[in-house]
Amino acid sequence: MGNALNLSAKHLFLALFTVLIWGLNFIAIYYGLKGFPPLLLCAIRFGLAAFPWVFLLPRPKAPLKYIIGYGIFTFVMQFGLLFSGIQMGLSTGLASLVLQVQVFFSMGLAAFFFADRPGMWKIGGSLISFVGIGIVAFHMGDSSSFVGLILTILAALSWSAGNMFSKKVDAESPLSLVVWGNLVAFPFMMLLSFFIEGPERMVSALQNISLPTVLAILYIVYLSTHVGYGLWGFLLNSYATAAVVPFTLLIPVIGFLSAAVVLNEPLPFWKIGASVFVMVGLVFNLLEKYILATFKRLRLKIR
Q: Which of 144, 181, 208, 250 makes a 20 to 30 Å CA pair with 169?
């Protein structure tokens, strides 16, 4: 992986295009849930993301238990909880914001499992961001939307747990890990949909599928999963992580703006305030090295 911190114009476009895809993905999820129950929507997404690509990409070089763990936490639990949270009433804009706290959950799990102790800037950033999540919780208008918030926070925790398994997997390409993770997730989610949502609801959704639902599924599977993860893996393999990861800060911005424009979601002051807290905390976390280096240079200049 290259150490360059400055992306070329072409790769800068790819990074911005990727976060645009992921930011707009929440709109696709919204329309997908209009036609399908959340668990069935997840199951179809996993099946299409896995087949036929699993026959073309080699299985990642890792014990099967790590691949299964990655598939369950990153896909089954994360997306099952996220889709259910949005259906329960959490707005797509807020969902795109709340999901970003996976950064802090990942930090805590890495400290616990890998003794990767966070610095004071990261801890401070976590506290700042969770003030924003507290603002969101305080303004939840009804019990269902509050449950949606809790489910989305659990989705973020599941994503961070999946990250711990991905550290144990030696995949030849990031896309192969995604495809095989979806293969693991597909039968689990089909069974959950069958027993929780019921066969009648599943059949009814499939029989009455609409064009917006089809387009939403195509977006979620091929743009968000294959194109998004493929481009992101390419960028991570081409540049230092610190040069690429901060672009994820744009995802909730795109999520909020697109929800306001496409879905007419309101943007009251408290949503903007909560976003500022979460985003500032993320900046502290993701740019800790830059912040410390800047302070060090300033001290040297003063001396």
A: 250
Neighbouring-strand partners of residue 61: 170
Distance CA 264, CA 28 (A): 15
β-pair partners for 170: 61
b (16+ CB within 10 A) / e for 157-194? bbbbbbbbbbeebebebbbbbbbbbbbbbbebbbebbe
Q: Which amino acid is at 5?
A: L
Q: To which H or E segment does residue 162 belong?
A: helix 143-166
CA dihedral 87, 84, 31, 42 (to 10 degrees): -160
3-state secondary structure (DSSP) of residue 156? helix
The Cα-based distances of 151 to 70, 89, 147, 148, 224 in angstroms read: 19, 11, 6, 5, 21
Q: How many CB atoms lie within 10 A of CB 221?
A: 20
